[in-house]
Amino acid sequence: MTSGRGPHLAVALDGAGWHPAAWREPDARPAELFTAGYWADLVREAEAATLDFVTIEDALGVQAARADGPDERVDQVRGRLDAVLIAARVAPLTRHIGLVPTATVTHTEPFHIAKAIATLDFASTGRAGWRVQVSGRPHEAKHFGRREIPDRIGPDLVTDLFDEATDYVEVVRRLWDSWEDDAEIRDAATGRFVDRDKLHYVDFESGWFRIRGPSIVPRPPQGQPPVTALAHTEVPYRFAAGATDLVYTTPSDVDSAALVARRFDAPPLVFADLVVFLDGTPSRATDRKKRLDAWDGAPYASDAAVFTGTPAQLADVLLDWHAAGIAGFRLRPGAIPHDLTAITRGLVPELRRRGAFRREYEATTLRGLLGLPRPANRYSTVEGAR
Amino acid sequence: MTKQIHLAAHFPGVNNTTVWSDPRSGSQIEFASFERLARTAERAKFDFFFLAEGLRLREQNGLIYDLDVVGRPDTFTVLAALAAVTDRLGLTGTINSTFNEPYEVARQFASLDHLSGGRAGWNVVTSWDAFTGENFRRGGFLRQEDRYLRAELFLRTAWELFDSWREGDVAADKESGVFLSRPDAGAFAHRDEHFDIAGRFNVPRAPQGRPVILQAGDSDKGREFAAATADAIFSRHGTLEAGQAFYADVKRRLPRYGRTKDELLVLPAATFVLGDTDADAQERARVIRHQQVSGQTAIRHLEQLWNRDLSAYDPDGPLPDVDPIVGENTIAKGRASTRMFGDPLETARRWRELAEAKRLSIRELVIEVTTRQTFIGAPATVAESIDDLVQRDASDGFILVPHLVPDGLDEFADTVVPLLQERGVFRADYTGATLREHLGLAHPDRRPAA
Ligand SMILES: Cc1cc2nc3c(=O)[nH]c(=O)nc-3n(C[C@H](O)[C@H](O)[C@H](O)COP(=O)(O)O)c2cc1C
Questions:
Q1: A182 touching B, CB under 8 A?
Q2: Measured between CB atoms, does A60 come within 8 Å of chain B?
Q3: Contact (CB<8Å) B72/A23
Q4: Neighbours of B139 (CB within 10 A)
Q5: Which end of chain B is less congested by CB atoms within 10 angstroms, N or C?
Q6: Is residue B450 predicted with pLDDT exceeding 80?
Q7: Contact B22, B404 (CB under 8 A)
């Protein structure tokens, strides 16, 4: 697919699906959520349909039905595995699909995340990305005990958290560039393994960090693995515009899709998130969602638009929004495997029939699939740049 | 009773043991190299694969050190990827207790254990120096004296997190709609001098309960820490006398913690060179030592002890007549080994004596004192030495460090391992699925109460 031919397509993987009762569906595999085989099957399913990438959700705390921290519920999925490690575990089992784990910036070390995503890029030969997550959750702060986040976070703290995230991404990007591509020389004549003039201290200093560098990992295959983030409001929009290659937004209709697409000059590429419940007829989809809602005891609500209907109807919506300026979609399957396979075996063939989705992978890296060129290294001298 | 030998494969590191100048030397960073070595280790029925850690590029004389391999991957990420291309091999990573927090390390190890079906191992190291700290937002805040305190508290906190979920907490019963069998699975609250944390851990109980714990400190405090907490020690003492002394010393410390001698394995690092005959192996070993220690490397090595710039000296000439500068090592940064020299004046005096007695140049002296391989010989000779050292309680096995990536273990796997198997001292096939089972360690939930 050339970028003019249709939207990019990704799926967001989270547990048994995004509906909290999804794990109770007859075809769900809730006892396997913490096994490698489960995740390998899901990602292979997405790859068989030539999707651009999968994201893998994560957080530094247990899931909760409340915004303010853990609850006492036992009827929903609780517990998860580290998303970067899930991505690494499936990397050798896949060949084309992008792997975009979530990793939190608020309580972690940029040096660790930089080397983890760079290493995922090596293990997947150029298919790594990163979904940056900011944590404003007080209970997650207590898991680290290094700073306080109040129960009710005000606008100043939100701004602070995203300023910190901006610096964090800058540090990570510098670390990825801290080795020039040709730094390793293995020059037997002079006995030097590296040309140290091509290794760079990043010397980042701000109110949040002082980081020296260079990274311990050479520059990853993509140079800069795509950095992505979900954004709903002004402050995160600003963060996404300045720091990311791809932003997930949550428009509710085609007009708000057009509006949000116009807010950004690429980069970042603007994606829209949708939670999807898909069946052969609209009423079957609605009934299934109702059944899930009844199990959970409440109608499902989401930050993103919730789509209920057939794959063909979803294709109409996606192509409409795409025409309005949305570059791609991150679909959140309501229940796995049902809605995942409805995407891969229903929606994708439908889009292909309309000439709006690739039939084969046409690039070997995630940047390639997204139409992003491999960036020059910020530290290399002009003739060294690729 | 004949002891069974444990063997591990150490991915060649960023030091001069690793020969990168050899035409057979492959990438130190591409995943294919890690996969290749891990598959060889698994084919040879090794207990585990091992990765070291170093979080700052080494420097000498204020410049990034460029004579050895530079660059390595992120430990957790590579181990998780290796879990996809191996079935039984243990996956052990070195992760320090200084530039991390228990919550994140515990969830990474618990995740790795799930994703590998119970094969995770953690070599807990204390690296604390301010030089490494410059790569971290928290900086190098830890005093040297405090490092084992933090390590021990870190490990005990991580254990609380691993134990905060019990087997069976995930009911996942669709019929009744009960996912969690108790509402507070993962709840914890921990407070000590270093950590004041509370909440809910978010990774369910891993197959091994807790990952296997290795420890690699050598000081008295380090040994005590190992005796109290570790399942295995990665040691430096691979010869008969030093090995026996170390072995006896650490095993003697166990009863104090209610532990038996089988609950802490001693696994020294070991290098090896094989040949068709012993003489052939000796010759190959000599060539490899010269590859490992170039003239430049010899000078740099001497500087690490002398703690001064010796670039004006000729590696083929005699040792410097000036004495080492005593005190904080300012020449070499990011090397644990600089603290192993002991008294630099005394060591320099010994090296000079040795050089004079044997008429050695700087390069020859450095080769003599630093790079003699642990096992050199025909496969039968090496198999016999390994078995002998284990049966005579100099160790419980070895962590083998090949000098070549990625094929450096092939010859050992093909020639020495079958001989050990013939002797009945090394498994012919895996009998268990988890790293604990390979090492003969009880699952923490099924350990008889101490
Ligand atoms: C065989 C061996 C391997 C080691 N590997 C590492 C390593 O990979 N990374 C690290 O930071 N420290 C490593 N160390 C250092 C130790 O973990 C420990 O921090 C150091 O020996 C200082 O502690 P001590 O004074 O008790 O010996 C290693 C030590 C030994 C003996």
A1: no
A2: yes
A3: no
A4: 15
A5: N
A6: no
A7: yes
Q: Per the domain annotation, does A210 fall within a domain?
A: no
Domain-embedded: residue A85: yes
Closest residue CA from atom 28 of ligand 1: B216
Q: Is the Cβ of A165 closer than 8 Å to some Cβ of chain B?
A: no
Residue with CA closest to ligand 1 atom 9: B53
Separation CA B208–CA B200 (nearest Å): 20
Give Cα separations from B206 to A160, B85, B94, B114, B115 (angstroms).
36, 20, 19, 5, 9
Average pLDDT over residues B256-263: 95
The answer to whether A264 faces chain B, any CB pair under 8 Å, is no
How many whole angstroms separate alpha carbon A281 and alpha carbon A55? 28
Task: Give the Cα separation of A178 and A327 in Å (integer).
Answer: 31
Listed residue (A116, A179, A112, A84) closest to B71, CA to CA = A179
CA of B215 to the centre of ligand 1 (A): 8
Residues contacting ligand 1 via CB (< 6 Å)? B 52-54, 94, 96, 125-127, 216-219, 221-222, 234-236, 269, 336
- Whole-model pTM? 0.97
pLDDT of A248: 98
> A308 in a domain, yes or no?
yes
Looking at every residue in chain A, the average pLDDT score rounds to 96
Which of ligand 1's atoms lies nearest the C-alpha of B340?
Answer: 27
C-alpha B344/C-alpha B324 separation (Å) is: 6
Mutation site for B-interface testing, chosen from A77, A102, A112 by largest number of B Cβ within 10 Å = A112
A74: chain B residues, CB-CB within 8 Å: 178-183
What's the B51 CA to ligand 1 centre distance in angstroms?
Answer: 12
Ordered by start, the domain boundaries in chain B are 6-276+373-444, 294-369
Q: How far is B369 from chain A (nearest CA, A)?
A: 21
Residues of B in contact with A33 (CB under 8 A): 170, 172
Residue A22's domain comprises 8-135+226-369
User: Does residue A1 carry a pLDDT above 50?
Assistant: no
- The token duo for B395 is 């160790």
Question: How many beta-carbon pairs below 8 A join chains A and B?
Answer: 235
Ligand 1: residue whose CA is nearest its atom 4: B216
CA distance A117 to A130: 7
pLDDT band at B338 (very low <50, low <70, confident <90, very high): low
Residues B262, B254: contact at Cβ < 8 Å?
A: no
Residues 6+ apart with CB under 8 A from B376: B272, B273, B278, B281, B282, B285, B382
Cβ–Cβ below 8 Å for B179 and A110: no
CB atoms B178 and A72 under 8 Å: no
Pick left, alpha or beta for residue B231 (phi over 0 → left; psi -120 to 50 → alpha; otherwise beta): alpha
* A184·B117 Cβ contact <8 A: no
**What is the phi/psi pair of residue B173, to 5°?**
-95, 105
| pLDDT digit string, tens, across residues B215-237 | 998 899 999 999 999 999 999 99
Q: How far apart are CA B333 and CA B63, in angstroms?
A: 10
Q: What is the CATH number of the domain that holds A32?
A: 3.20.20.30
In three-state secondary structure terms, A55 is strand
Query: Model confidence over A67-103: pLDDT tens digits?
Result: 778 999 999 999 999 999 999 999 999 999 999 999 9
Nearest Cα neighbor of A57 from B61, B122, B300, B202 is: B202
Question: What confidence tens digit (pLDDT) does each residue in A248-303 have?
Answer: 999 999 999 999 999 999 899 999 999 999 999 999 999 999 999 999 999 999 99
Residue A365 included in any domain? yes
Q: Which residues of A touch B196 (CB under 8 A)?
A: 145
Q: Is it true that domain B6-276+373-444 has CATH number 3.20.20.30? A: yes
Task: Confirm or reject contact between A207 and chain B (CB < 8 A).
Answer: no
Q: For residue B29, give both structure tokens.
A: 């960073």
